[in-house]
């Protein structure tokens, strides 16, 4: 890699004659829809990295980065595609997004691949994205739900939970995660009494709750969206006494969860991607300086997504995503000097000098093929109506 980086750095020196440019980074996220409460801080994470790079003066011979937001809705693939097409028409070459798996797949296939746009999603976790034909243009800083299912199954087994019912949002994300949890849990000897879909946007989930209650189980796994049907099923289960122990995967874990249910869900478990170590502490400083909450779901992964996009451009000596995409894995992994949040100016300098970097970032990034993070998960319990971090897996 060293010789390759030296060559690209030399290319960048000659490219300086062409002058600096303005690189447009799209933030393609679900600002409306079932995860709208998460989207603002996810966007803020990406914007913080872009600002840090732009203000450093070290990016592509003094080039600057501008960001723009577009709404995927999370659940309307046609709306997501149309919004992404507008981003591209307005000059976006790269995007942080999408936020939810189904609309991410649609945008990748119908916009990014035909237009040569690189996407790094901070939160689309469907296992289907691991095998999609993407021309090397798609990456993600959130781990696949294949891994999340294993973590949840292991936790349930350790806690002596012998049987579960699963409710999942009726889309690519929900089905993929539910299947992953069931396979891993049954592989450890657990019993899944039922795994049933629920549709988002309904006013009444009594029928779904009745079916889950009839199947029974020691706990209910809610693989849904906190601003949509996942909370609707949880409310119904609480009101009827069908379950008093819940397991909430990543789509449910946010401040909105405890604002809705408080101490009613005390003793339940939450699981979402997050890292331990120096990266989160440094990211907290960045978040405080930029006015958003560092522990918000996927905000750290969005910072890392934007940082990786821009650092890979620097490594390539070009803002062309078809050049930059070949450098994402190298920038993200060892060997090289470790780069944490707040270190992006240093990372840009090292790359310009032909040196290697190992981008650790806010979420302990370690990329594995086909361009996704290996993943670390934070375990929380709900105690006195608040999310309490109890460990990492």
How is this structure best described in words?
The strands form 4 sheets. A 7-stranded mixed sheet has the order 7-6-8-9-10-15-16, sandwiched between helices. It has a 5-stranded parallel sheet with strand order 2-1-3-4-5, sandwiched between helices. The chain has a two-stranded parallel sheet with strand order 11-12. It is built from 14 helices and 16 strands. Residues 1-18 have low confidence and may be disordered. With 393 residues, it is of the alpha/beta class.
Average pLDDT reading: 94
* Integer-rounded radius of gyration: 21 Å
Q: Please, how many helices?
A: 14
* Extended strand count: 16
What CATH calls the topology of the largest domain is Rossmann fold
Give the biggest beta sheet: 7 strands, mixed
The domain count comes to 2
Distance between the termini: 31 Å
The helix content, as a percent range, equals 40-55%
Inertia-based shape: globular
Strand order, biggest sheet? 7-6-8-9-10-15-16
The amount of beta strand, in percent, is 15-25%
Structural class: alpha/beta
Order of helices and strands: HEHEHEHEEHEHEHEHEHEHHHHEHEEEEE
What is the correct CATH architecture of the largest domain? 3-Layer(aba) Sandwich
Which CATH first-tier class of the largest domain would you pick?
Alpha Beta
List unreliable stretches of 5+ residues.
Answer: 1-18
Q: What's the name of the CATH homologous superfamily of the largest domain? A: Response regulator
Oligomerization state: single chain
Question: What would you say about this model in short?
Answer:
With 393 residues, the chain is α/β, with parallel strands linked by helices. The protein has helices at 2-15, 39-56, 77-89, 101-115, 145-158, 172-187, 206-215, 229-240, 255-261, 278-290, 299-316, 321-324, 328-332, 344-352; strands at 22-29, 64-71, 94-97, 118-121, 138-140, 163-169, 191-198, 219-223, 246-248, 269-273, 337-339, 357-359, 367-368, 372-373, 377-383, 386-392. Helix 2 (39-56) runs parallel beside helix 11, helix 3 packs parallel to helix 4 and helix 11 runs parallel beside helix 14 (344-352).
């Amino acid at each position: 890699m060293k010789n390759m980086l030296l060559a690209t750095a030399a290319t960048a020196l000659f490219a300086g004659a062409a002058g600096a440019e303005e690189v447009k980074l799209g933030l393609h996220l679900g600002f409306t829809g079932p995860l709208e409460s998460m989207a603002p801080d996810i966007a803020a994470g990406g914007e913080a990295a872009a600002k840090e790079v732009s203000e450093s003066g070290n990016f592509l011979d003094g080039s600057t980065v501008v960001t723009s937001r577009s709404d995927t809705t999370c659940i309307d693939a046609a709306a997501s595609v149309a919004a992404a097409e507008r981003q591209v028409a307005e000059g976006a070459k790269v995007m942080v997004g999408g936020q939810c798996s189904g609309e991410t797949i649609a945008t990748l296939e119908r916009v990014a691949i035909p237009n040569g746009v690189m996407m790094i999603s901070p939160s689309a976790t469907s296992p289907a994205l691991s095998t999609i034909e993407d021309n090397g243009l798609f990456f993600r800083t959130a781990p696949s739900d294949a891994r999340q299912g294993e973590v949840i199954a292991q936790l349930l087994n350790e806690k002596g939970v012998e049987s579960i019912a699963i409710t999942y949002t009726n889309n690519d994300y929900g089905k993929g995660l539910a299947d992953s949890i069931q396979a891993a849990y049954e592989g450890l000897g657990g019993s899944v009494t039922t795994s049933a879909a629920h549709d988002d946007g309904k006013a009444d989930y009594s029928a779904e709750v009745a079916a889950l209650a009839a199947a029974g189980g020691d706990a209910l796994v809610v693989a849904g969206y906190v601003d949509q049907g996942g909370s609707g099923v949880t409310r119904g289960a609480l009101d009827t006494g069908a379950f008093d122990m819940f397991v909430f995967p990543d789509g449910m874990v946010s401040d909105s969860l405890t604002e809705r249910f408080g101490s009613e869900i005390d003793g339940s478990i939450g699981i979402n991607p997050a890292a331990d170590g120096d990266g989160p502490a440094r990211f907290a400083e960045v978040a405080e300086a930029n006015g958003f909450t560092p522990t918000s779901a996927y905000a750290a992964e969005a910072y890392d997504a934007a940082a990786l996009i821009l650092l890979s451009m620097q490594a390539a000596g070009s803002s062309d995503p078809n050049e930059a995409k070949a450098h994402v894995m190298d920038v993200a992994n060892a060997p090289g000097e470790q780069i944490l949040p707040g270190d992006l100016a240093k990372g840009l300098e090292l790359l310009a000098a032909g040196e290697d970097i190992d981008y650790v970032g806010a979420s302990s990034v370690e990329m594995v093929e086909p361009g996704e993070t290996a993943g670390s998960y934070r375990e929380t319990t709900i105690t006195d109506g608040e999310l309490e971090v109890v460990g990492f897996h």
